[in-house]
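REQUEST FORM: STRUCTURE PREDICTION
Request ID: SP-0412
Submitted by: Lab K.M.
Chain count: 1
Length (residues): 487
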Amino acid sequence: MLAALVGVQVAAGVLTGGAWDAWALAPAAAALCLIGGAAAALRAAGGFMPLPSRGVAAWVAALASAAAVSAATSPVSAYAWPAWAGLAAGLWLIAAVTMIDADARESLEQGVRAAAWALVFLAVYQRIHGSPRPASAFPNENVFAGAILLILPFAARRGDFLLAAALIIELWWTRSVGAWLGLAAALVLGRRSVGAVAARAGAAIGAAGLIAAYAKLESARAFHRLAWWAAAWRMGAASAWLGLGPGAFAYALPAYAPAGVPLWTRFAHQYFLQTFAECGIAYLAVWTAGLAVILWRSRSPHRFGLIAALVHGLVDYPLNLPGVFWLFCLSAGLALPESGETLALRGGARWKAAAAVAALSTAAAWMSVRGWRAARLREQAVAAIESGISAAVPASELEASERLRPDPETARLAAELALSRAARGEQPAVELPLAAAQFETAASLDPYRASNWTLLSAVYAKLGRKREAESALNRGAASCPSLRTAR
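STATUS: Completed
RESULT:
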């Protein structure tokens, strides 16, 4: 059961675009929580529960706790908590895989290979239909390249050379220089495992990759990457211990981008810098130390994929997508030995443990469904507005969404609806204060969006509250350089 749950999670992650829209996976996450909780509760009621090794459990728990503190203290916690959930789901996989026996691991790897073939066939279909750089199920070809690096060891370990050859061909189609450098590094560093010929081939690939990378140094993409890396470094330096929260990079970027450079991206295109910016130096140190121990001690073929993905992460962002990160964590877990530890329960302790596991899994499922419902209600409100339905319909849906989970986009949309009603003369004395309150909420949940502050100031000005209008701009200027420049 545990191996099946792990396989479903990883397959869902890679086959749905790397879980790019993580909220869309919430119903599946809820189902996994309930099924996994039920299976664990039954194990507990039976008197025995498998456990990860103490070292792995402590490492994973420390990472999840550090990231949770970062999310709780984040200036954009409404965005940070869903990102934390994706990160924690990946860390859970590392511990879960160590509790799976050898036979179940074989079945799990076969499942990953089946998902890999689905990715291969989709990429071939895209290539045939005119895409020179197919991305398969992923947002772009560079993310696909990162997933290929992690999948290759699954094919090589099972002797599936046809799959390995297909993946290499599709890696060539992606033209991802960073991925080829990662492949080269893994071949060179894994000389004892892959042999001298493969290591020499890796050195040749690496040399060609470095030449290709050098040729791109004067391109706009190289300039953008340097600017994103500098912004990520400044974010990390501003909150070195805790970071700005998982997933915060995209929202905080306007405050840390170089002056006068209009850049927008969800990712820093450098895994370690983005991890430093979002989760802080303590998390990054514990994470990299644990990975270093795995890479040093393990002789598993999956070590190859881990090295390749980490080198690729020096110049790109596949590991920042939940689905690819889950595949990475699965590989890390498979590179660890089986735990073999169990917890024996007797008497009333069995039922107490079963009840506790059931309660925790149900709570996790409920939180997933709650977030999904909030997002769906907001989308329904947007659809109702676009279709011209009475304003009362989207307003009620937004109110219900806010009750389920506060979100800056929900609050902003509610404020804009209130402004539109006031503009039509529908009780401006009521609607304008409501708009101000909603813009206050939006600005507090996302202080890096300059228009939240300017619209809030404009509403206060309409209400004749000049001091509060000025205060809104002053507060916004603390996190929005554009407002400081304008003033």
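NOTES: The chain has a mean pLDDT of 90.
Reviewed by: T.R.
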